[in-house]
Amino acid sequence: MMVVMGVAGCGKTSVGEALADKLGTDYVDGDELHPPENIQKMSSGIPLNDEDRWPWLKLVGERLGQSGGKIIIGCSALKRIYRDRIREFAGGEVTFIHLSGSKELIASRMNSRTGHFMPLELLDSQFAALEPPTEDEHAITVDIDQDLDGIVDDVFGVLEKGK
Question: What is the pTM assigned to this prediction?
Fold first, then answer.
């Protein structure tokens, strides 16, 4: 079970889909698990609070747990407590793949994408909330200042070493 995590605009969907293809597993965009109220709030430029996130994080964890271990979900999972909640409901070990990049790089990517509900105005709140994974969390941190193939190769290389 894996979660591709990071702030909005870091590439969770692109990396998650490419990694799932490489590993022969399924990818689920965690945004699809948000209740409509959360999407509306974010679309309006209002950051979610913890109370908004708890039911969503529970669904992410449950979806991981129902997968039999063969799934990758894209989910911001910005705080340690959010990752702990995901692990709790997944019922097993979850590998978090943290897509790390500068605010400037991510803002430029967000400016160039279309059709996504998350406005650029919320990027500051995302970075303010971010607690990068610590060594005890079974996480891989990868620098996103490279092309998609490079990011996926970096993650895959670490996964292969861990086998």
Answer: 0.87
